[in-house]
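Two entries, shown back to back:
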Amino acid sequence: MDTLMNILTEIDSSIVWDQENALIDDRMLDSFDIISLVSEMEGAFDIEIEASEMVPDNFNSVEAMRKMIVRLQGS
């Protein structure tokens, strides 16, 4: 998922995304970042991220985001 990594790097290039497991819990992403991220992900992956999906478990790590994307693409 190079596309996801590109999106994340555009949001903040100072974060080593693959090494973080608490992006939300440690407040590395703020609400504006999440809104930008959701918008970019929806467009790039042709998915719709409902409000119920916007929980820390889905955004705390790159792996969690990948899993959510795959799950939503299968819906």
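entry 2 starts here
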Amino acid sequence: MDVYDRSILRHLQQDGRMSNLNLAERIHLSAPQTLRRVRTLEEKGVIRAYVAQVAPEALGLGVMAFVNLSLDREQFRNVREVERQLKAFPEIIECHTISGDFDYILKVVASDLKSLSQFLTDTLMQVPGVASLRSMICMEEIKPVSGLPID
């Protein structure tokens, strides 16, 4: 990845809706060269997607929590099935495998604390292979999802 590719990534992280012509002007390449580079970055999976970052509150999702999840060691061989089920829940907006005392950390959204509690108890804890959960309620979002450091 050269200086032009990095510049493309920097600009697209700031504004994913930027036109190819605008992008080309900013990185000082021709529009066809820029488009070719963007397409290559997409094909290689460097650029995963173009998305709009929506304010959760605008959708009535006033509660965010980080949930540590442990698997039942007896059913650990079914880990991919557990992951498939976790991916299917729209309330889980991020899921990461972690090291330490827990197996996963989830970022979960809900309309209120009661809805969060119901999701954790009635849905998440009912997934075969889930042994335990520990949740932490987000009090205030200080820095929302942002672009990766390019330099």
